[in-house]
Automatic annotation (TrEMBL):
SUPFAM superfamilies: NAD(P)-binding Rossmann-fold domains (SSF51735). Keywords: Oxidoreductase. It comes from the Bacteria. The keyword Oxidoreductase applies. Pfam families: adh_short. InterPro entries: NAD(P)-bd_dom_sf (IPR036291), Sc_DH/Rdtase_CS (IPR020904), SDR_fam (IPR002347). Gene3D superfamilies: NAD(P)-binding Rossmann-like Domain. Transmembrane segments: none annotated. Signal peptide: none annotated. GO terms for molecular function: oxidoreductase activity. The keyword Oxidoreductase applies. This is SDR family NAD(P)-dependent oxidoreductase. Belongs to the short-chain dehydrogenases/reductases (SDR) family.
Length: 208
């Protein structure tokens, strides 16, 4: 019988991340499932075989603390799943620079921070990196420009890392799911509606 794998999942409070944590733990794998909110961490901690890991991918100090906790567990790390992400739509003219920064902070710089922090552990086990992308990583459409920009960036990062880390025994892949029932749309709904409402002419009329 093979030794269980140790897997890190970011953004495991809902949606794909939560399903992965449940499924992998049921298969007997050792899962570090991360979330930001205390209530979500308490919920994850109740899953058998799951260690709830406080982690905010926007915060370098939080990423460092999470790496320390995983390392101190002494289980190594066989795979990292970069699932944490945020959404957002709206006429490009009404996106603020702050909103664009926030989107990239989670969807692009978040995975970059996590990969860089945990790379030594993955190299030691010749492990695997899985990035959760989107069909928006290879296409785009009206109102989805900023969000799909982040997913195109994640695609480029994945392809580059696959070539760079493959010779060192690390597999790097990306998943492009279609529509998924999750909280990602609901969490950005108010901001999305606000962008449409404040869009200048003629974009406001087009959005109706």
């Amino acid at each position: 019988m093979s030794e269980p794998s140790t897997i890190l999942i970011t953004g495991a409070s809902t949606g794909i991340g939560r399903h992965l944590a449940e499924t992998l733990s049921q298969r007997g794998e050792r899962v570090f499932a991360s979330a930001r909110k205390p209530g979500d961490l308490d919920d994850l901690a109740r899953l058998p075989g799951v260690t709830a890991l406080p982690l905010d991918v926007r915060d370098p100090a939080s990423v460092t603390a999470a790496r320390r906790q995983v390392a101190e567990a002494g289980l190594g790390l066989d795979a990292g799943d970069n699932n944490a992400g945020v959404g957002g739509i709206g006429p490009f003219a009404s996106w603020t620079e702050r909103e664009l920064h926030d989107l990239f902070e989670v969807n692009v710089f978040g995975p970059v921070r996590v990969i860089q922090a945990f790379l030594p552990m993955l190299l030691a086990r010749r492990g695997r990196i899985v990035n959760i992308g989107s069909q928006g990583g290879s296409t785009t459409s009206s109102y989805f420009g900023p969000y799909t920009m982040t997913k195109h960036a994640l695609e480029a990062l994945t392809v580059s890392l696959r070539d760079e880390l493959g010779p060192h025994g690390i597999e790097v892949s990306i998943v492009q799911p279609g529509g998924i029932v999750s909280a990602i749309g609901a969490s950005s709904q108010d901001a999305d509606l606000a962008r449409f409402r404040r869009a200048p002419a003629p974009f406001a009329e087009e959005a109706l």
